[in-house]
Amino acid sequence: MDILDLVGNTPLLRLDKIAAGVPGLTLLAKAEFCNPSGSVKDRAARAMLQDGLASGKLAKGRTIIDATSGNTGIAYAMMGAALGYAVTLYIPANAGKERKAAIRAYGGTIVETDPLEGSDGAYLAARAEMESRPDLYFYPDQYNNPANPRAHYEGTGAEIWEQSAHGLTHFIAGMGTSGTFTGVSRRLKDYGRGIHTLAVQPDSPMHGIEGTKHMASTIKPGIYDENLADGVVRVGTEAAWAMTHRLGREEGLLVGVSSGANVQAALSLAESLPKGAVIATILCDTGERYLSEPFWDAPIPADPRRR
């Protein structure tokens, strides 16, 4: 067994305390922080690298290069170290110091890009560098690589269905590359057309929900399939912050803000559903890689479910 063998098969947790205010609700959350590098991105990173190895595109002497806001980069760096490949990552300069430190701890090289251009700027810069020296790099291109959603179709979606005892009624999650939402939604809809899949979106282009794209104002990933979403639930930054606090203090789950946004969206959705709904969402990553962020000190709204 090696470190890549530890990816996947994460627990599906019940959030009974968070769900207590909505009668008849079963709220489930996939604990993706249990993956070896601490996030859901381990699944896609492993699939893309294994695909590269199988095709011969990831050959000895090549450097793995891609754009990231943090989590996929940490997964690449961890797996690159295990497999014996150098890793170069393009990342916005304002990304959190914990994420950059983790990448460097695994031996990855970071190229910082204009923070005002966000993940789109990092993506364009990484692609330009790869195109200038295609003989030097293996470029997984997480935003456009079909192995990304396939990892969630074959893994995450199937696991959620089995772990929910085939009783799921709704799945809801935010999107960065959209790989998790796309792959899980396709798999669940294969199991039953009655399962509703909903996308979580920030309520503004200028938001503080790290790792979650506001699709209307950004470069849309090639793997994004907007036809999979049966609806969209929009979440404000303060509500996501507040739910992230609640998850730590009420459920003992130290997670990042995108996880808080997912759970907040699930709770908002549940309030419009009849009793008996079974909703699953994703706890994307560990909160330990965001502890220097100021939102931990932000005032918590009195009733975060309604913000």
Short description:
The protein is of the alpha/beta class. Helix content is 37%, strand content 16%.
Description:
The structure is a single chain. Strands 1-2-10-7-8-9 form a six-stranded mixed sheet. The protein is globular, with a radius of gyration of 18 Å. Helix 6 (147-163) packs across helix 7. With 307 residues, it is of the alpha/beta class. The protein has helices spanning 16-19, 41-55, 71-83, 97-105, 118-132, 147-163, 179-191, 237-251, 257-270; strands at 12-14, 26-31, 63-67, 87-92, 109-113, 137-138, 170-174, 196-202, 231-235, 278-283. The protein folds into two domains: 3-40 and 146-306, Rossmann fold; 41-138, Rossmann fold (3-Layer(aba) Sandwich). It contains nine helices and ten strands. It starts with 11 loop residues before the first strand and ends in a 24-residue tail after the last strand. Helices cover 37% and strands 16% of the residues.
